[in-house]
Fold:
Amino acid sequence: MSESALSSAPRVAVLLLAGGRGTRAGYETPKQLAMLGGKPVLRWSLDAFAAHDAISRGVLVASDDVVAAVGELPEGWSYAAAGAERQQSVGNALACLSDWDDDAMILVHDAARPGVTAAVVDRLLAVLQNGAKAAIPTLPVPDTLVEQAGNEAGEVVDRAALARVQTPQAFHLGTLRRAHAAAAGATATDDAQLVRRLGLPVQAVAGDARLHKLTYAEDMDILSGLLGTKAMTRTAVGMGYDVHRLVADKPLWIGGIEIAHSHGLEGHSDADVALHALTDAILGALADGDIGDHFPPSDPQWRGAASHRFLAFAADRVAARGGRIEHVDLTIIAEAPKIGPHRPAIRERIAEILAIPVAKVSVKATTTERLGFTGRREGIAAQAVATLQLPEI
Ligand SMILES: Nc1ccn([C@@H]2O[C@H](COP(=O)(O)OP(=O)(O)OP(=O)(O)O)[C@@H](O)[C@H]2O)c(=O)n1
Ligand SMILES: C[C@](O)(CO)[C@H](O)COP(=O)(O)O
Structure:
């Protein structure tokens, strides 16, 4: 938008929604705090809006833990409390703008969409300036669409008549206020739907692939490609080592599978020595302590715990930092049982836990030629190396 157009334009505010818990992403912390290219996902859109000349005010909707992690807000920004649903979060943010007139322009944006561009914001504001009541960015549907019930693919749906809806979505403040008041508890997944329920038209403008939403953990990889953060990565390597004693009449868990044997490994958890070494290797590459720091043996909740939970936890911490596991290499040191026959199953299981291809999982085994504690069959040892790609610090 030109400078002269903006100078006569109404005031513009952003409602930045970061009040969700990111359940589908499955991280430990809300997805908007996951690291992407060296900064939290939420910070990407916050910085983009703060840098836009037309925007003079912002309300960040977030729970206390997110607020604490965000750090200082740009000038003109304030916080509102997260609501139970997205719609209530928007309602809480709207309450912060009670001192603004109905003709102000409001952008409502998901913090889970880090790739905000000035061009999309300008397109939205321009159509509002030209008389639209509401404007949303949309993208065409690239795939063939079918109806599906269970595993059965049914009729093709005409994709030419459909579009994918993104945020930011733009409204005059009065329209947005009326739409939320009229909703009276009836829910909608976005604000444009509430405006349409008032009988008002919503204008579509061209969206942007970079506005891709972080919904599932795998979206992180897509986003780092779209936002060009892949180049800003470093390789980190970690190693892990663990030993457990063999005792009679216990189940033997190694590498996430149960192996029939006269003896099993003793420990606070299921004592899966291989998964413990691997967990430590990943935590080591993250410089994030070791398995005992996160799952203390003194804590009764981990008694008998299945060790795949520890490994999945470590993998989640990689994803939450915007990183990925490139390769893991495991060596199991045991006189008996023979590990070789179980190697394919162990590789498969580890790949499944880490959600990486089997080709990125190496499992080796060796004996110590009957020397030492492993040679005397008193215990089994495992060592592991994990190679990660992490955002540059
Ligand atoms: N009570 C809520 C729920 C969602 N949001 C925000 O709305 C945006 C879109 O929601 P979604 O992607 O569904 O996020 P979550 O609700 O966090 O995800 P999930 O449904 O997987 O828990 C996100 O930026 C999210 O933080 C919000 O502010 N308040
Ligand atoms: C608002 C939204 O981003 C538009 O696509 C989306 O509807 C919100 O997320 P959800 O995954 O539908 O909860």
In short: The chain has two domains: 3-226, 233-391.
